[in-house]
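Quick entry between incubations.
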Amino acid sequence: MKLSQSFVKTLRDAPKDETAKSAKYLVRAGYVHKELAGVYDFLPLGLKTLRNIENIIREELNRAGCNELQMTALQNPDSWQKTERWNSDRMDIWFKTELSAGGELGLGPTHEEPGTAMMKDYIKSYKDLPANFYQFQTKFRNELRAKSGIMRTREFLMKDLYSFNTNKEEHDKFYHLIEEVYKKIYSRVGLSDCTYQTFASGGAFSKYSHEFQTVLPVGEDTIYYNADKSIVLNEEVLNDEVLADLGVKREELESTKAAEVGNIFSLGYKFSKPLDLSYTDQDGKKQLVYMGSYGIGVSRVMGVIAEKFADDKGLVWPEEIAPYRYYLVAIGENAEKKAEELEKQYSELILLDNRNMRPGEKFADSELMGIPYRLVISDKTLEKNSAELTARKTGEQKLLTLDELVAILSKV
Ligand code: ATP
Ligand code: MG
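Done. Structure below.
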């Protein structure tokens, strides 16, 4: 990609009302554009980053045998009335609208209701189970407090997965599988060191649900952990009964701020009962489907990563999710020719800063944008048939021959 072709400019100032470091940098570096509080446009760099996260999640879920589909964001009140969640007293974040032809519609805040209702057409007998599906979809929530940039917004990208099983035992196996899949995902996006699976409040069908919480000073949640972090729990379940259950004492726990990046729930019959999602078992008897739901806030994950790794110069993306691996700056005419050749061949990996600007300004932008490696080719490095490589995270520099560089590029 050539920066000269991009309309996006880096900005000196962030919107005044942004307080989170990640939000300021994401706007200034040209990843997102703010429409209104809690409502953002994803610009080319931002979209590419978001898609990289999305693709990691997709790869891991597909590997685990999950089925991707896409449901509509428009919500039929019928199924929500059956679970008594259409009423704004029960669900206080609805965006609702009206059909010209008459009647109400909602913009989907989550998809348990329509997902359960949809599966009535496909699940009839025990032979149709187990089943699961997931989607990447825009969710709409009329959040009272939109804050922390893309970490809490009124429109956001969620990955939601739903599972359908004959009974609890079968469900539990899938639940454990997804626990492992989530650990893999958070590790691949670069958050494994600071993300914990926590005990959170359950519901009628399980004692606990689990959340995945990333330790973050600006996080909205408080989590409690013991010394080796083998037991981590949410504030809402911090009580004597739970402590006894987990075999840990209050004074053995420390607290820290964290951001919820995902969760997994045993839903049991919570939705299948009111929506009557059932199957005929081997004895011809009607049974309710045992369900689970599993969310990841994809755009929040991007915000959390931005917040977690940013330094005083700007964003610092882990390699796997950075929009480009290399930020290429050429100094001198021969170097420019070489740089253009490289960009042409590896346009998905290289962001070539061919704008008419001083190298110093380009270096500053490469740091603000958080591209993992800066490559500088100058007439001087070309004499040695090489390029200078600087790692964004560590500042470490080394000279790389162009052959070595091409070998690395073609491997990625
Ligand atoms: P929170 O407690 O942060 O409001 P939630 O319990 O409402 O989250 P879910 O409804 O289970 O979360 O949504 C699944 C995931 O979507 C969450 O784990 C979180 O990562 C993300 N998420 C939830 N609300 C938002 C939001 N307003 N903006 C961005 N991401 C969100
Ligand atoms: Mg919420």
